[in-house]
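Input set for joint prediction.
Command: fold jointly, output tokens.
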Amino acid sequence: MDKYVLVTGGTGYIGSHTAVALLEAGYQIVIIDNLNNSSKEVLSRIEEITGTTPPFVQADLRDTDTVHEVFEKYSVTSVMHFAGHKAVGESVENPSMYYANNIGSTLSLIEAMQAAEIFTLIFSSSATVYSSTALSPFKEETEKDPINPYGMTKYLIEQRLTDLIKTHADWRIGLLRYFNPLGAHPTGRLGETSIGTPNNLMPYLMQVASGKLPKLKIFGDDYDTPDGTCIRDYIHVADLAKGHLAALQFLKGRTGAHAWNLGTGKGTSVLELVETVEKVIGYPINREITSRREGDVIEAIADPSKAYAELLWRAELTIDDMCKDSWNWQQQNPDGYSSTR
Ligand code: NAD
Ligand code: UDP
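tokens >
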């Protein structure tokens, strides 16, 4: 058993679910997060679910000395690196912030890991690394050509991490390319929060469903798909979390850099997702069809067969589960982690 796993960005949406999965599997963890996009309340929620409050260090990963101190204090043997900015639109408006934070924090983390001789790293990459003109389903070797600064930071970090193998043969790197994460912890105590009006489909849908926003805009119904709306591969955050544990297990036996798609392999259209939410909540969603959103690809679906072959991991939860758990979270936490119950 590992001594400690460092979870960077562990109070965020995917990091917190993975923190719970690690604790439930018997790992010891320490979290570093600067709380730039998350709340300390997450630590109490993790404690409620697992009975353990993991040690937490509020710090920016670019503070290399602090990261190094955490490695020494907790005898860390592996790192799951979730920390970073993640909003595509914001990255187009402010690319410098994305390059500085996502790349800067990863370079700092690598430096601290090398100094502490920790060589196992699992990185949160994204389907945005693939070319927007590539045809689904995407395999790991599908052409890469990110079209926005956020995706470019993920691509460049993947290159930098892959290069590490050339300088030290002990590196064990997992590049996990997530498709579209949805859902929440089944208890409703952990979930996704948005600061301001959400941009992504599910958080927006949840706010329309709960009456916080008046109407969902469906960005185009004239695409070349069965119902005219875009298709994505939505994956439950709990399945993603399990994928990280499977990757960590795999890396115990292998060095090198390994990329895996984490998706379901199934496509769901915008309208199908809206209709599933309507079924879960029991009433219609106020919606209108508007023009296409710039930069949207028609279809993005994973071929997750490599993850199954190598990690024995596959997504198990359905679109129904994702919608039910997102709605449970929304109802219990209408104002995210600042809600009281
Ligand atoms: P999130 O914003 O909820 O979590 C990221 C966490 O990192 C936040 O708690 C934030 O405070 C922290 N953070 C950011 N910069 C930091 C820094 N310099 N130092 C310390 N902490 C810092 O995001 P998430 O949805 O949980 O995403 C986790 C990772 O997965 C990100 O790297 C994201 O790019 C990637 N990813 C997310 C999605 C998605 O749709 N949610 C899809 C593909 C990939
Ligand atoms: N979408 C939409 N209305 C919204 C938000 C998103 O119709 O208010 C559509 C969007 O055009 C895309 C799909 O929902 O086809 C998923 O969008 P999201 O932003 O959640 O994920 P991404 O585009 O990053 O895959």
